[in-house]
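Tip: read the tokens left to right.
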């Protein structure tokens, strides 16, 4: 039986489905948009965070500028001789954790350290780039030290001056730890938001894909049922879109197919009826022919026998004609009975090799007389069959082979076991069967033998018996070669009823 492959069954990869493709493209687009949005939002927020920190640092520097300038001014003018006031301010500033000062230092206009949070650097003259930049700047100078988002420092330098007179420079290291924390929190929040938005989008996409593909899948299912042989239109909800058009085409197609199928069924019934009538005619003609001829002979014989003046040897001759004719009628009737009667079958386990041997020994006289060499290659094999009927099949086939080899030849019997069938092959080297007769030889009363020589029922009986066994019989006759008959019996057997 051919394997019926489902249309939907061919879809094996998730991405090859409509939903899969839709989701694949959708997720790629969502990922791209999410990445761009995520980074642009984070970048913008980052800049704002930095600006906020810079403002705070500048405010702090400006707030510190006044007291430091005053101290330097008082010292310059001699109003104050209290040394260590700068250090006191610096140490207080550093001690106040809320301000976030990491270091602080005051330089005189020549660049000497007047006060420093690291006391060991007092009265040194550093030449580092930041100090040089701080000393040369006339306004507030800001410099980042290290990565601002990984606990870096914002270096703020502010000149300590009154009008155009510069008394020194204040440099503060402003801690960016708060900026790092805010940035980390921002990243977490942005990530959570992006993930939630993406998940919502994917869910939306999935639902949309399902809604869009459901009618297509429904239609595909309906088409699949046509593919599997059902011509009943699957009910589909009405739609006014392109899919609705497709559904209409499907309905029209199913309707047309159904009408064609009904038409075909009607034609098939017509053909069967015609064939039945033809075979009834053929059988009647066969019976008429098979019985009429010997009947005419018998009637002539009877007529002659009724004449009283008939010499005794002639009487004997006519009696022989009468007997022969009646025998032909009996044979025709018995073959016809075999063909048309449903005899109860007697199925049993039988060894085909023994059946074949029995048939060959039964027909050994005919085989020898016609100079036919027999090559029997059938090994012992058990099938469930009616041994007597199987014998009948083989007798008919061997007799046909004998008739096909009037000048002698070779009869080969072999076997094949495949596809759950045990096939017996009966092959001869006779005249073969013309191609135009191949389709007709199993018809009842088809014979090429002369009048009174064959009823044409032998192969019809064979076919009937093999059918009853759930088997098949076929013929093969390549041009110019003999014929080979193939009798296949189910193996293990499937019995064709009790007939
Ligand atoms: N082995 C064969 N080689 C050539 N022709 C064959 C062979 N077997 C059958 N045929 C052809 O098939 C025809 C039908 O065969 P079938 O056995 O049905 O009837 P028959 O042999 O003619 O008559 P019956 O079997 O009643 O004696 C034969 O007349 C013959 O033409
Ligand atoms: Mg025959």
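Filled-in amino acids:
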């Amino acid at each position: 039986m051919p394997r019926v492959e489902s249309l939907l069954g061919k879809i094996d990869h998730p991405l090859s489905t409509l939903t899969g493709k839709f989701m694949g493209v959708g997720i790629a687009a969502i990922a791209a948009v999410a990445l761009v949005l995520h980074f642009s939002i984070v970048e913008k927020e980052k800049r704002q965070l930095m600006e906020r920190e810079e403002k705070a640092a500048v405010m702090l520097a400006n707030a510190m500028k006044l007291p430091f300038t005053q101290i330097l001014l008082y010292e310059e003018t001699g109003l104050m001789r209290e040394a260590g006031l700068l250090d006191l301010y610096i140490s207080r500033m550093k001690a106040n954790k809320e301000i976030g000062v990491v270091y602080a230092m005051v330089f005189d206009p020549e660049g000497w350290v007047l006060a420093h949070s690291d006391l060991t650097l007092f009265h040194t003259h550093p030449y580092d780039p930041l100090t040089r930049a701080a000393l040369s700047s006339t306004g507030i100078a800001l410099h980042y030290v290290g990565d601002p988002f990984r606990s870096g420092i914002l270096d703020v330098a502010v000149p300590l001056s009154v009008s155009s007179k510069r008394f020194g420079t204040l440099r503060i290291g402003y801690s960016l730890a708060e900026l790092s924390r805010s940035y980390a929190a921002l990243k977490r929040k942005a990530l959570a938001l992006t993930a939630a938005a993406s998940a919502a989008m994917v869910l939306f996409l999935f639902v949309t894909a399902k809604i869009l593909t459901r009618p297509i899948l429904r239609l595909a299912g309906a088409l699949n049922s046509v593919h599997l042989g059902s011509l009943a239109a699957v009910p589909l909800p009405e739609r006014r879109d392109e899919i609705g058009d497709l559904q209409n085409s499907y309905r029209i197609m199913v309707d047309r197919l159904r009408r064609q199928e009904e038409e075909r069924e009607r034609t098939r019934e017509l053909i069967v009826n015609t064939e039945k009538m033809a075979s009834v005619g053929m059988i009647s003609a066969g019976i008429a022919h098979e019985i009429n001829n010997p009947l005419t002979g018998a009637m002539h014989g009877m007529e002659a026998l009724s004449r009283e003046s008939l010499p005794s040897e002639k009487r004997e001759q006519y009696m022989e004609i009468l007997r022969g004719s009646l025998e032909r009628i009996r044979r025709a009737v018995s073959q016809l009975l075999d063909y048309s009667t449903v005899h109860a079958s007697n199925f049993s386990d039988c060894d085909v090799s023994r059946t074949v041997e029995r048939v060959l020994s039964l027909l050994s006289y005919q085989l020898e007389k016609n100079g036919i060499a027999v090559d029997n290659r059938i090994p012992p094999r058990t099938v469930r069959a009616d041994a007597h009927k199987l014998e009948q099949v083989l007798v008919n086939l061997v007799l046909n082979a004998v008739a096909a080899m009037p000048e002698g030849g070779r009869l080969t019997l072999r076997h094949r076991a495949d596809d759950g069938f045990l096939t017996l092959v009966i092959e001869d080297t006779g005249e073969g069967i013309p191609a135009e007769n191949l389709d007709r030889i199993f018809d009842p009363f088809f014979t090429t033998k002369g009048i009174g020589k064959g009823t044409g029922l032998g192969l019809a009986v064979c076919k009937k018996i093999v059918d009853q066994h759930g088997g098949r019989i076929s013929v093969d006759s390549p041009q110019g070669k003999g014929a080979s008959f193939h009798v296949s019996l189910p193996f293990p057997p499937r019995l064709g009823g009790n007939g």
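The radius of gyration is 56 Å. The longest helix spans residues 242-306.
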